[in-house]
Structure formats: structure tokens, C-alpha cells
């Protein structure tokens, strides 16, 4: 039976209050899914099918309740061993298929075999394939030996033939010399040998092949071992031969050794074995030699036909394996994962059921209960599974339901750290802010279109590419295709604002608002221009590009814009920290973290942003650097020409005072408040405090009291921690604002590089009338644009945008100390293997 009325977990009840509690409106990615700790009690007879259905559902992360046991002590160790043996056989098949160039069928079908039948079938196929391989190896070895023998017969035959011709010629000469009576000058020994055949020495011979790299050492050792009482002749074989023992191509020398006596022969045989020199018999007379050559050739032909038939039989076996390989592999991995999961469950004392605990999303309760019921019915078990929710103080895992569009953005956030359970997720804002900040640095609508075209190809072909194995870099690009698409779209947008198409301005939204006063002012500064029309409606007026004031104007624009964007994003981070505090009912962080941080940041850099906007709107020539510096150094001095609005001096004094007050506001109250609540808990007011006090106090004090109620409250430790946090924020407010100036620097670098490539490469070479120079110029321009601007600059802007999100934005509110929800899921297992 399935219990349908679970008790409410404190985490679940907190999640149910998401609509209230002062947090943002419910969003799929804003907060992680509400999780619950559940317990399932499964009868032994339906355990396998139940875990299989839960794996198909993929919404339950089970705990290992047998962590103290070794893998061999667990209940299903023998089944896992069987799965491992079957996986070994499948790897054996895959290795041989890859060697034979046979690819597996990627089409998955229903498997008619059950696990036991598959085990028997894999064993039979392995035995058959192993037997075929052994026979094939023996035939190949014999074939290689015959090929070496054939080589030896050829080389040794050539040597004997040339030697016999030389000996016959010498014999004829000697017979001619000895036709008369022996002269006094004739050697006595030679005369004896000619007259007495019994005194001639019968020499033995050995022939074979020795590796070429060992030939010199082979000859030297033979000479020393026999004290020079041998005759050795070596000749290089034209092509490498396949060595019978190693089955590898080896360059070898053919050799013939003549020796005298059995003792010398024994030494030579030992040396041949030591140098892996293969020996082959060589007949004495020519007739036997010719017969041996014919016999070897016939055997080689027969063996070749036999080997071809064996390979064809092996290929047929491998093809039959390939047709079902993926299905078998999927079944084996599925069974192995099921038994691994079953080993995580504890066995009840009656040994008739298994008990498991794990995390599941609240929304999956009904689906899990349905899976348990189906498993009970399909396994024809007389006892149903029990499902119940447990109360716990453990921190649940973090689970976001993402799709193929949002998953890549969520991965960017998770690479920094997984969100704590139900804290605000930066991924919601990253979907827009990340590609936008990238585009601020990359703004050129020509380059943006190039990126968009490349990304649209990946998106259009995503079904085809998803089923293929891509390289590491291509895999990363394919996984982030929607991130790159958003980056490209925002780059086109900011390119229209900067009015740059490969650094060339266009009058897309109308005519320029300015015109030359006279024909001679074409290269003049903006003072030589007259405003003759309405202000250019969108983006930078094209007249700025190419003028002498272009760089100062764009520098000022992009630098101030970077500060505005940075202050806006940092304020967004602080505001999100407020919603985090309200969601977790953490009033301490609202009053002693959010409020002073907001005041400090906006008293300084919020005020600077307001001055920038006022200066833009009024066209004043006030020096903002001077204003901000002397706001600290001489706050009571008159502003003079740097005054932008009435009462500015008073406003600056108030803001400076607020900034100074906010620092001790962040530092001092929070540690004393935590100390007071700790004392209240140990003065008999614990029950009242738990009912009425903020959840934040419980969480703040939990590290000190929950683990050990008698542990002293370390006020100094808490105070130092708060001091570090305060110093980090105060200094970070300055350094983080300065860090956003990278938007200005990289945007300027991208624009100038693009301008250099256009002016100094494309236009310069186009000025020549030589078609070859023009083609070379276009090729260099295209290569530089792709290699530098579309690859290196894209990567650079991506990394800088990543840093701005991780450090400048997320450190205002994001703890990132959670852990991912990792459910038992067959889909996830197959993805990891793929």
C-alpha cells in the first residue's frame, strides 16, 4: 500500500509559502524546487522492478544507507559481479568490432531477451569469437612463418647460387694449373686436399632472419662466441616482414652461417634464440631447393584462402553482435545501476523488504507513488510499497527544472557554485545580463551577424549533431549554442548603438545631424561641424567615426556607460539579497546588511551615476573626477564650475555622512544581536524564541549550538567574520565599480582592432590595381577577422563577462554552497556513457 497523506516537512512548508513572505513572484528558475526527504519500504520480490520504474522516472535521489559496508558485503554483490563480467564481454566485442571496422547500430529497439538469457548468449558469443580468434592467430602465425621461410629460401638461394658459380670458376682454374706435374711452388696442403678427398672438412649451415637493428650485435657475438670459427653472410630484406611471434612489421636481415662441429652449432642456436632470430632449414642441393620453394608457395596459397574464410566467419559473428550491441549494452548498464541502487537500501530485520531514504521534489510525490503502485501490480506482489515523508533538519539538494535554452546559462552559474537550497538563483538574470555585458564589449553588428549565422547552423542541425560524437571544443560550442545566439543578438543590438559594421558606420536610422560648414572641414574636429538636422535617432551619429574627436568622444561615452551598467548590476545584486532575506525571514540581514550596503553603494557610486546622467542631459562641462575626489578631501569647499545642480554641496555632505555611518552599521549590531539571542536560548527562553524569533537567528546560531548545546558562543569569531565581510564590501564597492571599466576597455580594443584591419589591410590593398594584391588583402582581412575578432575577442569578452557575473554581481547575494540534486535516472546514466 502507498501512504497518500505524508506529514509536512519544515522545508516543504517553507516552500509552500513562496507566494508570500515578501519574495519575488514564483518563477521556475528564481528558486529551486521544494524538496522533501522521503522513505520507501519495498518488498523484496518487487524491489528490482520498483527501482527500475524509479530509474525511468528519474525524480528520486536515494541515500546510501550501507556506507559502512564494503562493496563485497552488500546484498547484491554477486549480481553486480555478473553485470561487470557481462560488461567486460561487451567491451571485448567492441574492441574487436573497432579493429574490424564494423560500426554498431545506433537504433535502440525493445529487447526480447531477459537478463539471464542475455548472459548465456554473451557467454556463447564470447566463446565462439575467442575460438575463431585463436584459430585465426594460429593460421596467421603459420602464414607469417611460411612467408619468412620463402624469403629465406630466396635470399639464401641467391647466395648459394653466386657462391657455387664462384667456386666452380676457382675449381676450373685450379684444375688448369694442376694439368701438369706439381711445381715446387705449389702449396703442399693444397696438393694433399686435391689428392685425398677424405681430408676435406664437411661444414654445417644455419639460415634464417634476424631483426635489422640487432644484426651488428648478432654478428659480433657470434664471432666472439666461436672465436671466429664461422662464416656469416647477411643480406638486407627489401621490405619489412611480419614477425610470427609479435605479428608486427619488422625490418630484418637474411643470414646464412657456416660452422664446424656440434659444439659451435649449440652456441649458435643459443645466440639465435637470444636475438629472436628465426631459423629455417635450407636444402643442400638445387633440386630440393626448388621443391621446397614450390611447396612453400602452395602452402601460402592454401593458408591465405583458409584465413580469408576465417575472417569472413569472424566478420559475420561481429556483424550479428553489432546489430544488438547497443541494446545489450543499455540493458547491462541498466541492470548494473539497478543493483548498485538496491545495494544502497538497507535490508529490514525480517529480510522481507528493503528500506530506502532519499530526496525528491514535492511535485513528484504523485508520480513516485504511481511508480510504486505499478511495480507492485506488475511484479504480482501481495504486499505493496510504503511511501512516507520524513521530517529533517538536513539541507536538501538544489534542483532547477531547466530546458535546452536555460540549461547552459544555469551551468555558467553552477560552475561558480551550486545555489543553496531555495536561495535566489542568478541564472534568471544571467539569461539577459550575461549576453548583454558580452555585447557591450563586442558591439559590432557585422561581427554579431557572423556569430549568429554560425550559431543558427548549430541550432538548425542540433538533432543531427546531438547524436554525433563531437570534439571537445565543438562539444562546448554546441552545448552553449543558445548562449552564443543571445550573445550574437545583443552584439547586433549594441553594434547598432555604436553604429559599427566591421568598424564602418552607416546611416541606417536616418541622415547625420551634422554637416560641414564648408568643403574644407572634412577632417576637422566637431567644432567645424554645424547641426543641420534633428539628433540622430538611435545610437552614435555616423559623423563621429573618422573625425579627430572620435576617440575622446567614444572614450567618454563608453567609460561613463560602463559605470552606469556596473552600478545598476551591483544594485540589482543587493536588492536580490533583500528578497533572499525576506524569503528566509532573516530580518537581521535586512536591517544590518541590505540597508547599509544599499546606502553605502549609492551614497558614492549611485551619486556618481546621477551626476553622469545630469551632465549628459545638461551638456555641462563639470569635471566629475574633481567632484568625486574633493567630495572626500574637501567636502566643505565651494564647487564652482563643477556644480551641476543647486544644493549639490549639501547633498554631497549628507551622502558622505550616510556612507560613513553605514560602515559601523554593517559591522557592529549584527554580532551583538546574535550574542543576545544566544544568551536568551540558554536562559530558558528557547521555546519562546523558536516560536517567535526570526528563522535567521536559528540559522545563524545553528553552527554554534545545534551541533553542541554546551559549546560556548565565540563572540570574537563572529565579530571577526563580520569585520571581514564589512571590509570586503567596502573595498569591493570601489574595486568592483572600477572592474566594470573593463567594458569600456574591451569595447574600445575591439573597435580599434576592427578599424585597423579595415583601414590598414582591406582599404590599403584595395588601393592597388593588382588583382593578386587585392585577393591577398581580402584573404588576410578575412583570416584576421575570423581568427582575432571572432575567435580570440569572443573568448576574451566571454571570460570578462563571466568574471563580472561571478565576482562583481553574485558576491552581493549568492552563497553558492549547496549541492546538486542527483537523482537515480537511466537517462542521466546513458548521457554520461555517451
UniProtKB/TrEMBL annotation:
Chief site of localization: membrane
TM regions (residue ranges): 436-460, 481-498, 561-579, 591-614, 650-668, 771-792
Coiled-coil region: 108-149
InterPro entries: V-ATPase_116kDa_su, V-type_ATPase_116kDa_su_euka
Superkingdom of this protein's organism: Eukaryota
Membrane topology note: Multi-pass membrane protein
Alphabetized GO MF terms: ATPase binding; proton-transporting ATPase activity, rotational mechanism
GO cellular component annotations of the record: vacuolar proton-transporting V-type ATPase, V0 domain
Localization of this protein: Membrane
Record keywords: Coiled coil, Hydrogen ion transport, Ion transport, Membrane, Transmembrane, Transmembrane helix, Transport
GO biological process, one term: vacuolar acidification
Purpose: Essential component of the vacuolar proton pump (V-ATPase), a multimeric enzyme that catalyzes the translocation of protons across the membranes. Required for assembly and activity of the V-ATPase.
Protein family membership: Belongs to the V-ATPase 116 kDa subunit family.
Protein name (Swiss-Prot/TrEMBL): V-type proton ATPase subunit a
Organism, scientific name: Leersia perrieri
Organism lineage: Eukaryota, Viridiplantae, Streptophyta, Embryophyta, Tracheophyta
Amino acid at each position: 500500500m502507498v501512504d497518500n497523506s505524508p506529514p509536512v516537512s519544515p522545508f516543504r512548508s517553507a516552500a509552500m509559502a513562496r507566494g508570500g513572505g515578501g519574495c519575488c513572484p514564483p518563477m521556475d528558475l528564481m528558486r529551486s524546487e521544494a524538496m522533501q526527504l522521503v522513505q520507501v519500504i519495498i518488498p523484496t520480490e518487487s524491489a528490482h522492478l520498483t527501482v527500475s520504474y524509479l530509474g525511468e522516472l528519474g525524480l528520486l535521489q536515494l541515500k546510501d544507507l550501507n556506507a559502512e559496508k564494503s562493496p563485497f558485503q552488500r546484498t547484491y554483490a554477486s549480481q553486480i559481479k555478473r553485470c561487470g563480467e557481462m560488461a567486460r564481454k561487451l567491451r571485448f566485442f567492441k574492441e574487436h568490432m573497432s579493429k574490424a571496422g564494423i560500426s554498431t547500430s545506433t537504433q535502440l529497439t525493445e529487447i526480447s531477451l531477459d537478463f539471464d538469457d542475455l548472459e548465456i548468449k554473451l557467454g556463447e558469443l564470447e566463446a565462439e569469437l575467442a575460438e575463431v580468434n585463436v584459430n585465426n592467430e594460429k593460421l596467421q602465425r603459420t602464414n607469417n612463418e611460411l612467408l619468412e621461410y620463402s624469403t629465406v629460401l630466396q635470399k639464401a638461394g641467391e647466395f648459394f647460387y653466386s657462391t657455387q658459380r664462384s667456386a666452380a670458376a676457382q675449381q676450373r682454374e685450379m684444375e688448369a694449373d694442376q694439368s701438369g706435374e706439381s711445381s715446387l711452388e705449389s702449396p703442399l696442403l693444397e696438393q694433399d686436399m686435391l689428392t685425398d678427398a677424405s681430408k676435406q672438412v664437411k661444414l654445417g649451415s644455419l639460415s634464417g632472419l634476424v631483426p635489422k637493428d640487432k644484426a651488428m650485435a648478432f654478428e659480433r657475438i657470434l664471432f666472439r662466441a666461436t672465436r671466429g670459427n664461422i662464416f656469416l653472410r647477411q643480406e638486407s630484406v627489401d621490405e619489412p616482414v611480419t614477425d610470427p611471434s609479435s605479428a608486427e612489421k619488422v625490418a630484418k636481415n637474411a643470414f646464412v652461417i657456416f660452422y664446424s662441429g656440434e659444439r659451435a652449432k649449440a652456441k649458435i642456436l643459443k645466440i639465435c634464440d637470444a636475438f629472436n632470430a628465426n631459423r629455417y632449414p635450407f636444402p643442400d642441393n638445387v633440386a630440393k631447393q626448388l621443391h621446397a620453394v614450390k611447396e612453400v608457395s602452395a602452402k601460402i596459397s592454401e593458408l591465405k584462402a583458409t584465413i580469408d574464410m576465417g575472417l569472413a566467419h569472424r566478420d559475420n559473428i561481429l556483424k550479428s553482435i553489432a546489430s544488438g550491441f547497443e541494446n545489450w549494452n543499455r540493458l547491462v548498464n541498466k541492470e548494473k545501476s539497478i543493483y548498485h541502487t538496491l545495494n544502497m537500501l538497507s535490508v529490514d530485520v525480517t529480510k522481507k523488504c528493503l528500506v530506502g531514504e532519499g530526496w525528491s521534489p514535492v511535485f513528484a510525490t504523485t508520480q513516485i507513488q504511481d511508480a510504486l503502485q505499478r511495480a507492485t501490480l506488475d511484479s504480482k506482489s501481495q504486499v505493496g510499497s510504503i511511501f512516507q515523508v520524513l521530517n529533517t533538519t538536513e539541507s536538501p539538494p538544489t534542483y532547477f527544472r531547466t530546458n535546452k535554452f536555460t540549461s547552459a546559462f544555469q551551468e555558467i552559474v553552477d560552475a561558480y557554485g551550486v545555489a543553496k537550497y531555495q536561495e535566489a538563483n542568478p541564472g534568471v538574470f544571467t539569461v539577459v545580463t550575461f549576453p548583454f555585458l558580452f555585447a557591450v564589449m563586442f558591439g559590432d553588428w557585422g561581427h554579431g551577424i557572423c556569430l549568429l549565422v554560425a550559431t543558427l547552423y548549430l541550432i538548425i542541425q542540433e538533432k543531427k549533431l546531438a547524436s554525433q560524437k563531437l570534439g571537445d571544443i565543438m562539444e562546448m560550442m554546441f552545448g552553449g549554442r543558445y548562449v552564443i545566439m543571445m550573445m550574437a543578438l545583443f552584439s547586433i543590438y549594441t553594434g547598432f548603438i555604436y553604429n559599427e559594421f566591421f568598424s564602418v558606420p552607416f546611416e541606417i536610422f536616418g541622415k547625420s545631424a551634422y554637416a560641414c560648414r564648408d568643403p574644407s572641414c572634412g577632417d576637422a574636429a566637431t567644432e567645424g561641424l554645424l547641426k543641420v538636422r534633428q539628433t540622430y535617432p538611435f545610437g552614435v551619429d555616423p559623423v563621429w567615426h573618422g573625425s579627430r574627436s572620435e576617440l575622446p568622444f567614444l572614450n567618454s561615452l563608453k567609460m561613463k556607460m560602463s559605470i552606469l551598467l556596473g552600478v545598476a548590476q551591483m544594485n540589482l545584486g543587493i536588492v536580490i539579497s533583500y528578497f533572499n532575506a525576506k524569503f528566509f525571514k532573516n530580518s537581521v540581514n535586512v536591517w544590518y546588511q541590505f540597508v547599509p550596503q544599499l546606502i553605502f553603494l549609492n551614497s558614492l557610486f549611485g551619486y556618481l551615476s546621477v551626476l553622469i546622467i545630469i551632465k549628459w542631459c545638461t551638456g555641462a562641462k563639470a569635471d566629475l573626477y574633481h567632484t568625486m575626489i574633493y567630495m572626500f578631501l574637501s567636502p566643505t569647499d565651494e564647487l564652482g564650475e563643477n556644480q551641476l545642480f543647486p544644493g549639490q554641496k549639501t547633498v554631497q555632505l549628507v551622502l558622505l555622512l550616510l556612507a560613513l555611518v553605514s560602515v559601523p552599521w554593517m559591522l557592529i549590531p549584527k554580532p551583538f544581536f546574535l550574542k543576545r539571542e544566544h544568551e536568551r536560548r540558554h536562559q530558558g527562553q528557547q521555546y519562546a524564541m523558536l516560536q517567535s524569533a526570526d528563522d535567521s537567528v536559528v540559522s545563524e546560531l545553528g553552527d554554534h549550538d545545534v551541533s553542541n548545546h554546551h559549546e560556548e558562543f565565540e563572540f570574537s569569531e563572529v565579530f571577526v567574520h563580520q569585520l571581514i565581510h564589512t571590509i570586503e564590501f567596502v573595498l569591493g564597492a570601489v574595486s568592483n565599480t572600477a572592474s566594470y571599466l573593463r567594458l569600456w576597455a574591451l569595447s574600445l580594443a575591439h573597435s580599434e582592432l576592427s578599424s585597423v584591419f579595415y583601414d590598414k589591410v582591406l582599404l590599403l590593398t584595395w588601393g592597388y590595381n593588382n588583382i593578386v594584391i587585392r585577393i591577398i588583402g581580402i584573404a588576410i582581412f578575412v583570416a584576421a577577422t575570423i581568427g582575432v575578432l571572432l575567435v580570440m575577442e569572443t573568448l576574451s569578452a566571454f571570460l570578462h563577462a563571466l568574471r563580472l557575473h561571478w565576482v562583481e554581481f553574485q558576491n552581493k547575494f549568492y552563497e553558492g554552497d549547496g549541492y546538486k540534486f542527483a537523482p537515480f535516472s537511466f537517462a542521466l546514466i546513458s548521457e554520461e556513457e555517451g
